[in-house]
Amino acid sequence: MLTAARLGAAALTAALLTGTAAAPALADTPTPGAGATALPEGLYGKGDPTYDAVWRQSLSLTALAAAKVTPADSAVSWLTGRQCADGGWLSYRADVSAACDPTQADSNATAAAIQALVSLGGHQDAVDKGVQWLKVNQNADGTWAYNPGNPGDANSTGLAVNALFAAKADPAGVAKAGKNAFDGLATFQLGCAAPADQRGAFVYQSAPDAAGEANALATGQASLAAAGGKLPVTNTNRTDAAPKPLTCTDGATAAPVPRADSGEAVAAYLTTQLASDGQHLMLKLAGATPTPDYTATAWAVLGLVQGGHPQQAAGAVDWLAKEGGTWTKGGTDAAATATLLLVAQAAQRDPATFGGSDLVAQLTALGPAPKAVAANGSPTASASETAKKDDGGGLSTYWVLGIGLLIGIGGGLLLSLQRKRGARP
Fold first, then answer.
1. Prior bond to 256 cis, omega within 30?
2. Core-most of 104, 129, 161, 362, by most CB within 10 Å?
3. Measuring CA to CA, how many Å separate 218 from each of 117, 188, 189, 360?
């Protein structure tokens, strides 16, 4: 079962239509009776962890590491301690003493966990085991499914490619039956056989032909992989020219989009869609009023920035800054808050004032007190207050540092006076 907070409304809708999910509460919205059950120590977020625990933990750790926040040991050990013996992760492993059911392994959670552990550093064994799990569970067509043994989808395949990039495992060399990870990703990208306004987009789970239908979330999430990226996005290259649409000639066939053209083709599609829908992507379902798709828009920004097109992403960044509080539920949804923080970082916006909110403070408040915040990171009042509580009500680290600074300044002034008077220090 998936949740809207877990993968976004588009993927959830696909699951509902195929009968693989029941309509759930949002992942960070407490469910009836959930308050009676204590959340695991070290986990970010206050809501039901059943369907998105590893996902939100991994995004939170990745975003905070990029913000130069050193997370609590309990937050990191929570993630590493949930890895299964075969290297994968379940969406949530409540009982670590019980063996994992391999059919319930979550490729999306595994891909996100790998990227988080790479960002944190010092967890190479766990990363290597996770990459090996991805290799073992790759489908024969080069794709990945949400759970092993099922047909692949664009979202899962894109996330797996992100993880391979993060772990420095060339996706071109990760293959099954002669089909590598890039070949798998290409099976979902609409090419020259599709209508002109759909070319470059990704479908969720079907062959890319003239009957294919672009999916906002699939396109957004796959765009980062098509651009050769991973989390966090740190690319500072800038291509001032607009992204190049896919070039098609008369009589073009349903051949896959060439790898060399994939990133630019999806960037061109996203640029057009963002401009036409008020600088955000929309969830469009038959018989329903279209609604903003925050998750898809955020991933579209990440893909555009990675592809060297931050100027084409700027409008969507502004929209997310203005409207993101609705998505994050005022900074109480860990996965959404972490993703928004990753967007601000990629776009080189100040996360302490993004849309009038301090995203680092909001995310930090959703988990255990961090071990440290770098001087050039984003120290906040919320983090300081959390640290005070962690110190049992005594002097916090920040108070000690402040007192030390005052002593140092006073000592320097005294030394200066002594020298003026000819006294020895």
1. no
2. 161
3. 24, 9, 10, 27
Q: Among residues 62, 31, 32, which one has the least CA distance to residue 44?
A: 62
- Condensed to tens digits (0 to 9), the pLDDT of residues 157-194 reads 999 999 999 999 999 999 999 999 999 999 999 999 89
For the chain, count helices (H), then strands (E): 16, 6
Roughly what angle, to the nearest 10 degrees, separates helices 259-276 and 216-226? 140
Cα 254 off chain centre by: 31
Query: Which residues lie below 8 Å from residue 216, measured CB to CB, with a gap of 6+?
Result: 10, 273, 281, 282, 283, 284, 293, 296
pLDDT per residue as tens digits for the range 202-222 = 999 976 654 568 999 999 999
Q: How many CB atoms lie within 10 A of CB 382?
A: 16
Count CB atoms within 10 A of the CB of residue 395: 12
CA distance 32 to 40: 18
Whether 131 and 164 have beta carbons less than 8 Å apart is answered as yes
Q: Kindly report the pTM of this predicted structure.
A: 0.83
Residue pointed to by tokens 């770098």: 374
Helix axes 73-80, 107-120, angle to 10 degrees: 140
For residues 310 and 235, the answer to whether their CB atoms sit within 8 Å is: no
Helix (H) or strand (E) segment spanning residue 275: helix 259-276
| 259-276 and 294-306 helices, crossing angle to 10° | 130
